[in-house]
# Entry
Amino acid sequence: MTRTSHIHLMATYNEWMNSKIYEVAGSLSDEELCVDRKAFFGSILGTLNHLVAGDTIWLQRFANHPANYATLGPIRQLAVKSLDEWLFPNIRELSAHRAWLDQQIVQWSGDITESDLDHTLHYTSMNGVPADRNFYALLMHFFNHQTHHRGQVTTLLSQAGVDIGVTDLVVLIPSGL
# Structure
């Protein structure tokens, strides 16, 4: 498996898992989704908003790659001020945006070339600190961050009495020799 095919697999996994989470979360009331469950971002909805905020910030940074990914054009226009910002007040609006964002990620993942991955990406952190990191390593962080917080969401959903079912990446890994 090449690095680019692995990135596409991770984008597909991200879309699949988000679809499952939002379907299950959508069965809960707005009140239940906003209960402070003492997670880092408080509630189920707070954590899901954080994932959208974080993904948007990273995608905007990735849009500055010299490959100038056209598929990230619409992402450049989004405004995110902080990682704990509630971009959407309810699961319905957040879910619609998440589905759109995931489509952008999957499409963009198909545009990334092997040579793009060895580039050093220059960006500024949310605290205004300049950074230079390997693009491929940042992509792995991007997908790992999503998995980390989705794991928190599945725990919060479990606390609310909802089972999301199978969440393992291995379900999407193709069989092979």
Summary: Strands lie at 120-124, 130-134. The mean pLDDT is 95. The domain at 3-171 is CATH 1.20.120.450 (Four Helix Bundle (Hemerythrin (Met), subunit A)).
